Amino acid sequence: MRPQLAFPLQFLSQPQIETLHHAILNVLWETGVRVEWRPALEAYAGAGCRVNFERQIVQIPEQVLEQALQTAPHSFSLYGTTPADEIRVTIDDVYTIAGSSALKVLDLEGRHRPATLQDLADFTRLIDALENADIMHAMVIPQDVPQAGFDRLLLSTILQNSSKHYYSQGLGGASVMDQVEIAAVAQGSTQAVMQRPCFSMVVCLVSPLVHPAEQVQEIMECARFGIPLWLEATNMMGASAPITVAGALVEHSANVLASLVLAQLLNPGLPCIFSVASGGFNMRTGSYVSASPEMVQLHCATAQMAHSYGLPFHGGGGLDACLPDAQAGYERTLQAVPLILAGINFFCLAFGMMNQLLTSSYEQAVIDNEIFSAVFRLAEGIRVTPETIALDQIHKAGPGGQFLNQAYTLHNYRREQWQPELTNRLEWEQWQHTTSGKDMRQRANERARKLLAEHTPHPLSQEQATEIDRMARLFQARAAGSTGL
Q: Which candidate, 295, 360, 301, 299, places its Cα nearest to that of 331?
């Protein structure tokens, strides 16, 4: 839990929030969402929604949404495989989530190449070592393994290299069941997983306003096992959503809330996080834009909307930069400062995600950790107490005095002043002498190598690790066989 400013950054006024809410209600009732799985359509219909089974369109009335918002919890816990890794979630707390599913890496030798299973293990250990990384995600999808059922190998590899809560992804309902079985080995039983699941599941909705069958099945199985859900809509302003920030906000909010209704119908009280990964659309190249001022506005404003519904919010984005350079630094800061000050609860894609989410960089992950450290210090605000006002120290120093020799200074300077790991604060000659003139990327490279060489995560037993790996490969082979791959 990290303290926040008393008055967070706000992009929307209360009248604007109310206007947007009425627009969202209008979309849910007049336009509706397409839900491509009949059992879910039946659940919606049974709750009083208007359902066209032939067109697979669900129209949700306000009272059904309100009931779902009443049962969706405002606070809950996310668990790791050790008690120390429990995270208490409220709409006032801020946490980070590692990067997500890059297909390539920028490795420590400077090579841009396809990601491997070893990269997944190494990135997981690196993120496990970073003090500002709270929740684990699969930084890469290994390209040296069969792609059908790859999610089972992700879970197995991450459980063997980190005890932090895992933000998982699936490939349909069977995937959820397989992941529960794998997690049960680490946690002792299926019942233990259902009571304190060490993983949660992101469900990626399609914009505009589509819930594909595979993702709906994931929602339904997570509801059955009590697995927390990240209900995530991803639109591109001007392509799969209106070009305006307000229009994109309405589209992805309606999409998320429609899925929230289903989750709460199936399991009232299931932890659900209002999640978006929406961004811009490059009209010149037809590609996704991860880092832009409009993306920041959209996510900050959506955090306000989610909080108005009493729901924790997950947003944030990767970098468009291809290298850990000046562009990467300003893009990360452009996102991190306003989003953290706006009270985002989970900053996703927080470490090392570059090149429009296609590449994970070891060096950038370490640099991002430094940036978040500074931003969290900024977000703490200013403590104003009799102790921090320091009248006694001012009187003691007197006119023309100094504070270096006061015990108060020695006692408080680490608490009051941010202490960087990578940032250079040496003048030129000292910098040259101490670091041989290395820039931040080179210093990050050295720190990443050091962490990978020295950090040991909380291990599973050898028996658990062997069994988890066996099960993951068995489940993956079964998934590949069912798809004919």
A: 295
The CA distance from 12 to 109, in Å, is 45
Is residue 32 within 8 A of residue 17, CB to CB? The reply is no
Spatial separation of the C-alpha atoms in residues 375 and 369, rounded to whole Å:
10
> Which fold does the domain 1-381+420-485 belong to in CATH?
TIM Barrel (3.20.20)
Q: How many CB atoms lie within 10 A of CB 285?
A: 9
Phi, psi at 271, each rounded to 5°: -60, 125
CB 142 within 8 A of CB 116: yes
**Structure tokens of 111?**
């090579």
**Residues 6 or more apart whose Cβ sits within 8 Å of residue 413:** none
How far, in Å, CA of 9 to CA of 307, rounded?
A: 13
- CB-CB neighbours of 226 under 10 Å: 16
Q: What is the pLDDT of residue 485?
A: 47
For the question of whether the overall pTM of this predicted structure is more than 0.85, the answer is yes
Take residue 265 and report the two structure tokens written for it: 């119908």
Cα atoms found within 13 Å of the Cα of residue 174, Cβ hemisphere only: 12
Contacts 24+ apart (CB under 8 A), 281-289: 281/236, 281/237, 281/238, 281/239, 283/238, 287/356, 288/236, 288/356, 288/357, 289/236, 289/320, 289/356
Q: Report the sign of the C-alpha dihedral through residues 181, 134, 74, 230, in that order.
A: negative
State the Cα–Cα distance between residues 326 and 217, nearest whole angstrom.
43
DSSP 8-class letter at 193:
H
224 C-beta neighbours (distance < 10 Å), count: 16
CB contact burial 16-49 (16+ within 10 A = b; e otherwise): ebeebbebbbebbbeebbbbbbeebbebbeebeb
pLDDT at 406: 94
- Structural domain spans, the chain: 1-381+420-485, 386-416
| Residue ranges in the chain whose pLDDT is less than 70 | 1, 3-4, 482-485
Residue with tokens 């993956």, as numbered in its chain? 476
For 442-467, the pLDDT digits (tens) are 999 999 999 999 999 987 999 999 99
Three-class SS of residue 484? coil
Alpha carbons 272 and 74: distance in angstroms, whole number: 9
8 Å CB contact between 343 and 307: yes
From first CA to last CA, the distance across the chain in angstroms is: 44
